[in-house]
Design goal:
mainly alpha, 17 helices
């Protein structure tokens, strides 16, 4: 392990600093915005614009990197992020924040893709799993660590914005000062959402809805805590425990999905997340302990859904199509995270802060219902033929990039995803199955 990690230690340190800044900024903005009296709609749009910029960045950033190189692009993206966070602390204006947040999302996609391509270049077939696991862990601890910084300074002052800018500036040093050769140009996998839907309808619809729920809570969870009367420390603890609970739950949920129909696991976890959300809506807890416990239950169930849906899609796809399948699902998840906060803000204004969990519960109930319907229409892949479950970064970090999929140990040579590559529908007519197998 030491031999695998020492060559990339500096890069991993820069990654940690980057995600510390991301975590701090992602919690600081909605809490400060709520204190400034911004409406729920505007606070929701902070998440919408960031996610929109991130998704666009996943498509455009590779062209920027190809034109000017990895080091210059990385320095430029980080400089813009640092400039944006400092301007956010100086110019406390909702319209300015929305524009700056979109630019930050775009640049975050670029920096993440460059780091992931560097890690992918250094990884070997033997070290890929170790490097991927450490990368996921660093993104988790970085985001949570940044969020836990919020209680240690007055959010009404520019202090935390300055600390965030310092973290982003430090994150640039390991990569810009490195003597290592730049990695190969970033690649973009061709996406075919129509073929992806034919391959696994529940994964497509499910991940879109999971993105709606996660996007709504990820952006407006801190606003809910603030409106519910929690102090800064309690809000930070509430948001952080959601991520930790989801990360811990991934392992037992993944093992369970390897042994039974993954759609049943999706239905069960979605139902649990919906029940936890409805309990918050109906009980309307006001005490810190009650809110944190219910939100932890919600986070444990909700944040374990994404990797199971990805694993189910890959069960029905050819092994070499992992990057294409997961990239398409990642795009759907990103679209969901754009819809979620856009919908959640007005609902909270209309029905109160607790109504945020009515939005998440609605999305999770739809996942439950559709997973049950699909489980009756198509038999599961036999356990011996399934793709092994692996944790996925999108469930614990704001969003993952397509470049992170190449780092995943399941990724092989990228190919196409024609319908003939999908595994046969187990309930289809035998002669149709035979033709698909022959192709």
């Amino acid at each position: 392990m030491r031999r695998n990690l020492l060559p990339i230690l500096a890069l991993l340190c820069g990654t940690l600093l980057l995600f510390l800044g991301n975590g701090l900024q992602s919690l600081l903005l909605p809490v400060r915005g709520a204190q400034e009296g911004y409406s729920n709609e505007v606070l929701g749009l902070l998440g919408t614009t960031w996610a929109s910029g991130f998704v666009i960045g996943c498509f455009v950033a590779p062209n920027v990197v190809r034109r000017i190189g990895h080091v210059r692009a990385f320095s430029g993206f980080l400089s813009l992020i640092c400039l944006n966070v400092l301007l956010t602390g100086l110019l406390v204006d909702q319209n300015t924040w929305l524009v700056l947040r979109a630019i930050t999302g775009f640049c975050t996609a670029g920096t993440s893709m460059i780091i992931e391509s560097w890690l992918n270049e250094r990884a070997t077939s033997e070290s890929r799993g170790t490097i991927f696991s450490f990368y996921i862990s660093i993104t988790l601890f970085g985001v949570v660590g940044g969020q836990l910084m919020v209680p240690f300074a007055d959010i009404a002052t520019p202090t935390l914005f300055m600390i965030c800018g310092i973290l982003y500036s430090l994150a640039a040093l390991p990569t810009t000062l490195s003597k290592a050769a730049s990695p190969q140009p970033l690649k973009r996998a061709r996406l075919d959402l129509r073929a992806l839907f034919r391959n696994s309808p529940i994964s497509c619809i499910g991940i879109l809805l999971i993105g709606v729920a996660n996007g709504a809570y990820g952006t407006l969870g801190a606003v809910f805590g603030t409106r519910a009367g929690l102090d800064q420390g309690a809000v930070a603890a509430m948001v952080s425990i959601t991520i930790f609970a989801g990360a811990i739950m991934q392992f037992p949920a993944g093992r369970l999905s390897d042994r039974m129909d993954r759609r049943h696991v999706l239905a069960g976890l979605s139902a649990a997340a919906a029940l936890a959300g409805l309990a918050i809506v109906l009980v309307r807890p006001s005490g810190t302990y009650d809110i944190v416990v219910l939100v932890a239950i919600y986070g444990a169930a909700a944040n374990a859904l994404y990797p199971i849906a990805v694993a189910h899609a890959n069960d029905f796809a050819a092994p070499e199509d992992f990057v294409k399948v997961s990239g398409g699902l990642l795009l759907l998840y990103g679209i969901g995270t754009i819809i979620g906060p856009t919908l959640g803000g007005p609902v909270m204004t209309w029905a109160g802060p607790y109504a945020l969990f009515a939005v998440t519960a609605g999305a999770h109930l739809l996942v439950t219902a559709y997973a049950i319907i699909r489980s009756r229409q198509r038999a599961p892949i036999p356990v011996a033929e399934r793709e092994a479950y692996t944790t996925a970064p999108a469930s614990t970090s704001p969003l993952a990039t397509p470049e992170s999929l190449s780092l995943d140990p399941r990724a092989k040579t990228s190919g196409s995803l024609p319908e003939a590559n999908a595994r046969p529908d187990m309930n289809a007519r035998p002669e149709m199955n035979a033709r698909k197998e022959a192709s």
